[in-house]
Structures are given as C-alpha cells and as structure tokens.
Amino acid sequence: MRPCVTIRLPSDHEKKEYWHRQVTILVYICVLLETILFAGQEQTSPDWHSYDLPFRVLNITSTGQLLWICGTDETIAVSSDNGLTGK
Q1: CA–CA distance from 20 to each of 25, 28, 31 (Å)?
Q2: 72: which residues sit within 8 A by CB, 6+ positions away?
Q3: For the chain, does the N or the C end have fewer beta carbons within 10 angstroms?
Q4: pLDDT given at position 15
Q5: Bigger pLDDT: 31 vs 65
Q6: Which residues contact 56 (CB under 8 A, 6 or more apart)?
Q7: Which neighbouring-strand residues pair with 77?
Q8: What does the pLDDT look like over 20-38, one tens digit per residue?
Q9: Cα dihedral sign for 75, 79, 84, 87?
C-alpha cells in the first residue's frame, strides 16, 4: 500500500536559517522595546540655555569663539561669549 501524504523533514541548513531568523527578530524586538522605554527619559544638560530672540532663527554656525545666527528679515546676530550676549 502506498502512503497518501509525503512528509518532508527540514534539512540542517533550513533549521539553521529558521533559528537565525527567530534570533534576529528577537533582537530587533528587544532593541525596539529598549528604545521605546528609554526615549522619554532623556535629560537636557544643565549647560544648555534657551533664549527668546526677536526673530525666527534660520541657521546657526560658529567660527572659533564666535556664534553666528541668521534669521528672518535679513537678521544676523553674533555672540563672542558663548551665547550669553549678542550684537
């Protein structure tokens, strides 16, 4: 009598691919969960300060000790004391 159903067992290579895929998915899930859990816990440095300027800032650059800021209506500001005062 001949069997109606043929069962094919996976090869060693297919087993390795399966487990590699499962481990890769598990690592991605762990990284995603860690990113989600720790994303909202960032602390700003106490060295950072924000200032309200009378214009909208479009670009910032620095050269040496000078901090240059350009903004709307052709506004340019420069600071030589780490941003404490501007001209």
Answers
A1: 9, 12, 17
A2: 55, 56, 58
A3: N
A4: 86
A5: 31
A6: 71, 72
A7: 69
A8: 999 999 999 999 988 888 7
A9: negative
DSSP letter for 41, please.
Answer: T
pLDDT at residue number 23: 94
Residue 3's pLDDT is 63
Report residue 5 as tokens: 């159903």
**CA–CA distance, 83 with 5 (Å, rounded to integer):** 78
Is 46 part of any domain? Answer: no
Integer CA distances (angstroms), 76 to 64, 68, 80, in order? 17, 7, 14
Are the CB atoms for 68 and 76 separated by under 8 Å? yes
- Spatial distance between the Cα atoms of 18 and 10, rounded to a whole number of angstroms: 10
Domain that holds residue 20: 11-39
Do the domain assignments include residue 48? no
